[in-house]
Amino acid sequence: MRTDVAAGPPGPPGLPRAGRCLVMGVVNVTPDSFSDGGAWFGVDAAIARGVELAGQGADIVDVGGESTRPGAQRIPAEEELRRVLPVIKGLADAGIPVSVDTMRAEVADAALTAGARLINDVSGGLADPQMGRLVAGAGVPYVVMHWRGHSHRMQERALYADVVGEVRLELRRRVDVLVGDGVDPGLIVLDPGLGFAKHPEHNWKLLTHLADLAQLREGGPTFPVLIGASRKRFLGRLLADPAGTPRPFGDCDDATVAVTALAAAAGAWCVRVHEVPANVDAVAVARAWREVEGPAEVSASGGVTGADDRICLSGLRVFARHGVLDHESRDGQEFVIDAALTLDIRPAAAADALSRTVDYSAVADKIVREASGPPVKLIETLAERLAQVCLAEPGVRGAEITVHKPHAPLPHRFADVTVTVRRARQ
Ligand code: PMM
User: Fold this and answer.
1) Which amino acid residue places its CA nearest to atom 13 of ligand 1?
2) Does residue 189 share a domain with residue 43?
3) In a domain? residue 1
4) If you take atom 11 of ligand 1, which residue's CA is the nearest one?
5) How confident is the model at residue 365 (pLDDT cuts 50, 70, 90)?
6) Which mutation among 36, 68, 232 tests ligand 1's pocket best, with the greatest number of atoms within 8 A of CB?
7) What is the pLDDT of residues 4-59, one digit of tens each?
8) 91 and 212 share one domain
9) Which domain holds residue 404?
10) Mutate to test the pocket of ligand 1, among 41, 83, 107, 120 (most ligand atoms within 8 A of CB)
11) Domains in the chain: how many in total?
């Protein structure tokens, strides 16, 4: 079993590395959060809950003092500090990795002093212009969530023509500003902000495009992605009863677990959840899944998982009799083949062992044998068959084949005719 591909993105330094998607347990020290408001509103209860979540397998405990439920009004900074600081200190002193869920630089700063290791800012730095410089100076991991304004008005702003493209663009602008403030991009975690200025259809679309959200520019770096779907209204709406009444948030934990499994299998770095044990199990399932399947085609790992490794053979020349016209099958002609195989080459590189990779000489022999075998009419057919030959090699996850027919019977001066197919192992 290849355990290396299961790891997913390693995430920023200073936080746990588990070789799988992390689980962040939520402790809202608020009287009014929609999901658990009031349940842990008191220092001792909140600390006890954080310790319990860590004991159940949470890698990080996220402590927040201000509700962000739709329609929520803001509270003063002093009140937020009063709620979160003793809880963060109590958990950090117990050796638990803690993040602070805040939009205020002042609160983030005090939370870091109290022992927090990660700043989770649902506004991605938009709510407080001081946040970027604070994060830059502190050099701590920072969650940049997609946000379009404070909770009391955010749902009015859930207007998108292309939600994935727009969230990606707005996150990119945020990251550019933060990096301009001095924030190390290697410490940034992205979050699409499910439910924040999003309707259910937006949330589902974002969830199914995690790889696009991890990479904000073509060819640019990829960022770890955090997903906060836990108990959110779009799950309640999905599970509404026949009369259309949404399922209460407390009965959406199973649906949360399902999202966790799917997001972790798609390469999410972390899931933020209210109930930890079943989500830990879901992450274990996703890890096993990724070990066999390999990461998504464009991984959220910045190439760390080996998802994008390729071995390429180009310009293989074969004499064969493929073609529609009689003289092509009678006289034959030269075809040229390029093959690019996608496979994780790290085990071979680590051991410097041919046995742990694809032997390109053997693959070249197989390609030539297939291409010079019984004639077919179309180079499309040939390309498809060659892709299947390559995919049959152990470890190969994808193959891109180009068949060139430079002497195709065309009544014009031309350089080449090609057909390219790209296939993934099913
Ligand atoms: N959601 C909530 C609060 N904080 N932080 C991040 N990074 N992502 C989220 O989706 C997110 C968050 C609101 O949920 P809650 O009130 O149940 O904690």
Assistant:
1) 68
2) yes
3) no
4) 228
5) very high
6) 68
7) 344 456 788 889 888 899 999 999 998 876 666 677 778 999 999 999 999 999 99
8) yes
9) 309-424
10) 120
11) 2
Spatial distance between the Cα atoms of 329 and 322, rounded to a whole number of angstroms: 6
Tell me, yes or no, whether 189 and 332 share the same domain: no
- List the residue whose alpha carbon is closest to atom 5 of ligand 1: 122
From the list 272, 290, 397, 405, the catalytic residue is 272
* CATH code for the domain of 350: 3.30.1130.10
Query: Is 272 in the active site?
Result: yes
pLDDT at 219: 82
Residues with CB under 6 A from ligand 1: 26, 28, 33-35, 68-69, 101, 120, 122, 143, 145, 191, 193-194, 226, 228, 231, 272
Q: What is the CATH number of the domain that holds 29?
A: 3.20.20.20
pLDDT score recorded for residue 36: 65
Using the predicted structure, report yes or no on whether residue 167 has a pLDDT greater than 80.
Answer: yes
The per-residue pLDDT for 16 is: 87
Mean pLDDT of the region 142-147:
98
Is residue 169 located within the same domain as residue 95? Answer: yes
Amino acid at site 111: A
Annotated active-site residue in 49, 117, 232, 405: 232
Whole-number Å distance, alpha carbon 228 to ligand 1 midpoint, is 6
